[in-house]
Amino acid sequence: SRELEPEWTAVQNLSNNPNIVSFDCETNPRLCRELDVASYPAIRLYHRNGHMNRYRGERKGNQIHAFLRRAQQPPMLKVDVASVSSFLDIDHVIFIAHIRLGDDSLRDRFNALANKYRNLYSFIMTGPLQDQSALHCINNIDEEEHTATNLGTVGALEDFIKQCSSPLIPELTRKNEVEYTRSGKSLLHYFFGSEEEKEEYRTEMRSLAKKYAEFLHFTLTDVHKYPEMLRVLGLKAGSKTGLSLQNPNTGDVFPYLRRRKMTAELVEQFLIDVISGKVEPLSTKPNGHDEL
């Protein structure tokens, strides 16, 4: 696809590996059938022993490059406690299991988890820091860390994976929008028109998103993929970008209507104005929700 082509070129440049190639299934249908590629674009890693890994992450050059790097290391790295600090920047998201002697159950479950998610994250097993076992994770993208010690409940490890790997400022899609609209929190929607705009906004708002994370999700929406959402959130149809605060619990929508470059200071002032009642929700205006 056109969107993937520049990202794939970035992967080739980062890896400098002649074995990173691409095929057009429209012009090479036979080859794609032989490789059992039913839908595309598809990204797969083929090993000499016949094993194959499917890439299911974001179609971004740096993410795909990280996937290739993980494939060259074992599913789980075993290191001593003193050496752990040397591995804290090897990946975007890293999970570290500090396992006490004799805790075979956690050791086996963590090993299974590492094999399941090896294509997405890096896993390290080491000795305990205290008397009990614990899991620690580092999200180098959002500069966050989490620790869990209550690991005996059903689904505890999977929940920890989700907590650590979920982006602080997620991009909304049809697949995940329900998860966020039903979270009980308000959503601050930012519409972007390019990858550069998206990443610039993420970087600018990261600290602010952490500050308000208890009751507010900062989210991103591709204006080209979901242009109809502009009007739903009180913004002008056809806009190239926009910002709007939504309370899914009440249906209230607070569009930001000023045309100014989005800065953390400006956005926080907008939130303060909404909280203090200086900005009225769209639903309180005549016919405000008729078109939603």
Give keywords.
Protein disulfide-isomerase, 11 strands, globular, Thioredoxin_domain, about 290 residues, Glutaredoxin, four-stranded mixed β-sheet, five-stranded mixed β-sheet, alpha/beta
> Total domains, how many?
3
Q: According to CATH, what is the topology of the largest domain?
A: Glutaredoxin
Specify the structural class.
Answer: alpha/beta
What is the first-to-last residue Cα distance? Answer: 33 Å
What summary fits the major beta sheet? 5 strands, mixed
The residue ranges in which pLDDT falls below 50 over 5 or more consecutive positions are 284-292
- Inertia-based shape: globular
CATH superfamily of the largest domain: Glutaredoxin
> At the first level of CATH, what is the class of the largest domain?
Alpha Beta
Q: Over the alpha carbons, how many angstroms does the gyration radius reach? A: 22 Å
Q: Give the ordered list of helices and strands.
A: HHEEHEEHEEEHHEHEHEEH
Neighbour order of strands in the largest sheet = 3-5-4-6-7
Strand content: 15-25%
* Strand element count: 11
- Overall residue-averaged pLDDT value: 90
Question: Helicity level, as a percent range?
Answer: 25-40%
CATH architectural group of the largest domain: 3-Layer(aba) Sandwich
Given the structure, what is the number of helices? Answer: 9
Description:
Belongs to the protein disulfide isomerase family. It comes from Lasiosphaeria hispida. Residues 2-69 form the Thioredoxin domain. This is Protein disulfide-isomerase. It is an enzyme of class 5 (isomerase). With 292 residues, the protein is α/β, with parallel strands linked by helices. The chain has 3 domains: 4-71, Glutaredoxin; 77-165, Glutaredoxin (3-Layer(aba) Sandwich), CATH 3.40.30; 177-284, Glutaredoxin. 31% of the residues lie in helices and 19% in strands. It is built from 9 helices and 11 strands. The protein has helices at 4-15, 29-34, 61-71, 104-117, 156-165, 177-181, 195-211, 229-232, 264-275, and strands spanning 44-46, 52-54, 77-78, 93-98, 122-126, 134-139, 144-148, 186-192, 216-222, 242-247, 252-256. It has a 5-stranded mixed sheet with strand order 3-5-4-6-7, with helices on one face. A 4-stranded mixed sheet has the order 9-8-10-11, covered by helices on one side. Strands 1-2 form a two-stranded antiparallel ribbon. Strand 1 and strand 2 (52-54) form a beta hairpin. Helix 1 (4-15) crosses helix 3. The protein is globular, with a radius of gyration of 22 Å. The protein starts with a helix and ends in a 17-residue tail after the last helix. The model is unreliable at 284-292 (pLDDT under 50).
